[in-house]
Amino acid sequence: MSAQPGEFPGGRRRSSASRSHHFRGSLGRFATGVAIVTFDGPSRRYGITVNSFTSVSLEPPLVLVSIARRTTAHDELAGRAFTVNILGAEQQALALHFAGRPGVEPQWVEGSVAPRLSRVLAYFECTPWAAYDGGDHTLYLGEVVDFDYRSGDALAFANGHFTTIPESQLGVEDLL
Ligand SMILES: Cc1cc2nc3c(=O)[nH]c(=O)nc-3n(C[C@H](O)[C@H](O)[C@H](O)COP(=O)(O)O)c2cc1C
């Protein structure tokens, strides 16, 4: 008999901690890019590294990020304009900087509705569109009001590790 979800082969139940670890490991098999959400809060500027970025709609142009409730950025992001900065392969230190391991001096650019980071692979400046309950996260949707990209390899994240995606595997829009 095959194992049910949440069971080891043979039917033995996972402990809650083991199940959570296995869930995260399973999610980690989905390779993603890496982005930093930047915005101005009431008293300071915020940045938070995410890999939960998703394109949602072309008309209107909508994107989504999923932000954990336990982060300091979570409450401050509600109702605020933000930028999703897509990182290039050489920007891993920046990803760590905004994931609780400070170490570089970010170079900021004043965007039209929200601050963004200099020399990123692509960016999407957004005004707030909606926020939805996502369990221990909130799904923040933004309407894209400005965007751009440059050439270069992409920073990626898979199986809990940073990796890179060569530019030769990106840029399909050139084929359309
Ligand atoms: C590669 C990577 C991807 C991450 N993706 C997310 C994410 O999608 N959503 C999230 O809330 N946190 C994510 N995190 C964790 C946050 O970046 C981290 O908790 C950060 O320190 C929170 O900062 P704050 O509490 O100062 O707001 C990710 C971290 C890394 C390294």
TrEMBL record:
InterPro entries: Flavin_Rdtase-like_dom, NADH-dep_flavin_reductase, Split_barrel_FMN-bd. The keyword Ribonucleoprotein does not apply. Residues 1-20 are annotated as: Disordered. Residues 11-20 have a biased composition (Basic residues). Keywords: Oxidoreductase. Pfam families: Flavin_Reduct (PF01613). GO terms for molecular function: oxidoreductase activity. Its EC number is 1.-.-.-. Residues 27-164 form the Flavin reductase like domain. Belongs to the non-flavoprotein flavin reductase family. This is Flavin reductase family protein. It comes from Sinomonas terricola.
